[in-house]
Amino acid sequence: MNTYFRGQALVAFCVGILFSIGFLLIDFSLAIGLGLFIGVLNLVPYLQIIGFIPTIALAMLKAAETGENFWVIIAMALAVFAVVQLIQDGFLVPRIMGKITGLNPAIILLSLSIWGSLMGMLGMIIALPITTLLLSYYQRYIIGRGQENNSPTESSDNEQISDYTEK
Q1: What is the pLDDT of residue 162?
Q2: Do 55 and 34 contact (CB within 8 A), yes or no?
Q3: Choice between 150 and 27, residue whose per-residue pLDDT is larger
Q4: Which residue, among 126, 124, 123, 128, has the nearest Cα to 101 in the 3D structure?
Q5: Half-sphere exposure of 109 (CA within 13 A, CB side)
């Protein structure tokens, strides 16, 4: 579980940096602070949408300050949210969490979809830990991995393969 939270923190940090860059590109005041705040919100998966509230407030301030159309500024901010979400869901989460949890990126996307449809937002939050736990139990108890080698010393992969082929 510790590695899962480290992976989630790394994803949140990357998302915060991406939001900061996006808000700097559309010339928001406090872009770096807002981006990092949304990154911190992302420690709980998909909670960064709450960051849209201060984004609207900053868009109002920018519209009042520069005289630009408020709806254009909101549309640009929404585009930043959409692009960062696409990068996060399509690249960051499968790659980072795949390496951390040892899951294939396709399994990660599938588990997020399945658990999200079954349990909604809560399912998306608990999808990766539950999937990792279920796969671990499956490998240990159903397939039987880990039962042959109970000694404190670890054997090499070749010895484990030969144990399975001899039976």
Answers
A1: 46
A2: yes
A3: 27
A4: 128
A5: 11
